[in-house]
Write a structure and sequence with these properties.
Oligomer: single chain
Shape: globular
Number of domains: 1
CATH class: Alpha Beta
CATH topology: Rossmann fold
Number of strands: 11
Strand content: 15-25%
Radius of gyration: 20 Å
CATH superfamily: Alpha/Beta hydrolase fold, catalytic domain
Distance between the termini: 53 Å
Order of helices and strands: EEHEHHEHEHEHHEHEHEHEE
Helix content: 25-40%
Length: 294
């Protein structure tokens, strides 16, 4: 059964939506959420459809359902703030990119943490590096009961944090730490999303903050280069030297908070607040001609 794990931290007139990764949970965004909230932001740690339950719950959903969760969260927050930023971890970064491509007028800036277009980090086995073929494999009806299991160091360099999260994950607490394995059909959906977002990158002119670990065990720096070369807006890149994939919970999470705060504030301070469209008012000139205007 799916547990509700999303959260909201009220703050100022700049808001941030935080999106967790595939098989993940809003909990992996809570460190960053609290830091951004302390720095004045309204924060919504959202929950993707099918997540924080069991594997069967996840398999009932696909990338369109996950993306709809993001759209719904954006619709709720956009009307409450003057500036809306969207940040995501791993697959969550892909969903943030897609929202910026589809709704450029809604998204003022992006935080892209450990962005994963492909799983090609140093812990990924050779079979896992072929997972980009899963849309074809699963489309032919194969692999529906197969899964790739998370392996040490679970994307976390900090031993204390790793032990706590891995303990919850291996103990079956999916609301706290996510699922232990990635079902092949869900990975196939991930790659369908990845292929689509890569084709949309040229449409993105939204300012991007890219935060990635140099020694990312899940997604190599190749993923950063895809963003830098693909988008058409300004990009600020922060490479972390003492973290693995889960940069929002790992040893340099304070740096993620600091640089995100600085970046989002800079964008907010250099943009005009969006005002509602003015209503048209009927006026009559001296000749009796009816015109419309403000």
């Amino acid at each position: 059964m799916i547990k509700s794990a999303d959260f909201r931290l009220p703050g100022g007139r700049s808001g941030v939506i935080l999106i967790h990764g595939l098989t993940g949970t809003p909990t992996e965004m809570r460190f960053v959420a609290k830091g951004l909230n302390r720095n004045g932001f309204t924060v919504h740690g959202m929950q993707l459809a099918g997540h924080c339950g069991d594997e069967a719950d996840l398999l009932k959903t696909g990338w369109r359902d996950w993306y709809q969760s993001v759209c719904d969260a954006a619709d709720r927050l956009r009307g409450e703030v003057d500036h809306m930023f969207v940040a995501g971890l791993s697959m969550g970064a892909l969903l943030a990119l897609k929202l910026a491509a589809d709704r450029p007028d809604q998204v003022d800036g992006l935080g892209l943490y450990g962005t994963s277009f492909v799983y090609d980090g140093w812990t990924i086995p050779w079979l896992g590096r072929l997972s980009f073929l899963l849309p074809l494999v699963c489309g032919l009806g194969f692999g529906w009961k197969q899964r790739f299991h998370e392996c040490f160091p679970y994307g976390i360099k900090d031993e204390r944090i790793r032990q706590r999260i891995a303990g919850s994950m291996l103990g079956g607490d999916s609301a706290a730490a996510g699922l232990h394995g990635n079902p092949w059909p869900s990975l196939a959906e991930f790659y369908r999303l990845s292929f689509l977002v890569r084709r949309q990158l040229h449409r993105i002119r939204t300012p991007c903050l890219v935060v990635h670990a140099v020694d990312d065990d899940v997604a190599s720096l190749r993923n950063v280069r895809m963003i830098v070369r693909g988008v058409r807006g300004p990009v600020e890149t922060v490479l972390l030297e003492n973290s693995y994939h889960m940069v929002t919970v790992d040893q340099e999470r304070s740096t993620v908070i600091e640089r995100s705060t600085r970046f989002f504030n800079h964008v907010a301070n250099t943009q005009f607040v969006r005002m509602p469209e003015p209503a048209q008012v009927a006026v009559t000139d001296n000749a009796g001609t009816l015109e419309t205007g403000i």
